[in-house]
């Protein structure tokens, strides 16, 4: 009898819960959510559509948005840089698929995945991907693979219920621009609002403890072939990464480099070249202060210039 009562009660409660989840998911973006850095994708898509050739398209997460000075690249290489980096949680799989439609003949693509993308299923996205495909760019919703859906579905309750919070609507944006806002990106897609801020002491990442995602490597190979078919070229480089985190994960990082070399990717530099001193961090192991940004960018310019000269027809 008790078991029957509990079953009936749980069934009764699940109906309004499911309804609330559905209603929350269908609501438009809240005023607070609309100011977040994820909505910078709208501006970056416009850059991909409108920026003239010759173009340099950079693909990755916030190691790019918080780690590149695109003006330096433009001045040194006479290329029009487009920094598509926003957040690693969007997942490398989505980043690759999303940029494909915008590639033009002659484009140079530089992909700099965060190291975590290569381990486990992180490359298929997390909460940020769910927000991106539902709130920011719903047209891309149907392009997700089964693997991506499996990884983002657990975040659905949190996402839906966030739409039902009154604080999300009674919100007034501050005149001061925060580092994680749509407004924090410059005309190339770099976050530069923090360049005048002092850096912070950054706790190193934990040691990577999963297996390299072989399926992702194959998807990267397929992406390279599609890029080539469009008359463009793909290079891979390494993220600017905090020395303390790098040293803790050095063995795993060089496994990634070995895997990429075995699959004949055109590599710019080597992992240790992009190991950034601890005092050049801003607020995470991938986010650099201005000194770190310029150091990482200068090394990328040198490596890319050498590669372009080598691969010119």
From the structure above, extract its key features.
four-stranded parallel beta sheet; alpha/beta; two-stranded parallel ribbon; Rossmann fold; 313 residues; single chain
Give an overview in words:
This protein is of the alpha/beta class and 313 residues long. The chain has a single domain (30-311), classed as Rossmann fold (3-Layer(aba) Sandwich), CATH 3.40.50.1110. Helices cover 44% and strands 9% of the residues. It contains twelve helices and eight strands. Strand 7 (281-284) and strand 8 (287-288) form a beta hairpin. The termini are far apart.
CATH topology descriptor: Rossmann fold
Anisotropy-based shape: globular
Total domains? 1
Count of helix runs: 12
Strand content: 5-15%
Could you state the CATH homologous superfamily? SGNH hydrolase
CATH class: Alpha Beta
Strand order of the largest sheet: 2-1-3-4
The ordered string of helix (H) and strand (E) elements is: HHEHHEHEHHHHEEHHEEEH
Distance between the termini: 79 Å
- What's the architecture, going by CATH? 3-Layer(aba) Sandwich
Low-confidence stretches: 4-15
Number of strands: 8
Report the C-alpha radius of gyration, rounded: 21 Å
Mean pLDDT: 91
What about the largest sheet?
Answer: 4 strands, parallel
Helix content: 40-55%
Specify the structural class: alpha/beta
Which SSEs are present, and which pair or pack?
Layout: H1 2-26, H2 40-50, E1 55-60, H3 62-65, H4 70-77, E2 80-83, H5 92-100, E3 108-112, H6 127-136, H7 146-152, H8 156-162, H9 214-229, E4 233-236, E5 241-242, H10 243-248, H11 250-262, E6 275-276, E7 281-284, E8 287-288, H12 290-311
Parallel strand pairs: 1-2, 1-3, 3-4, 5-6
Antiparallel strand pairs: 7-8
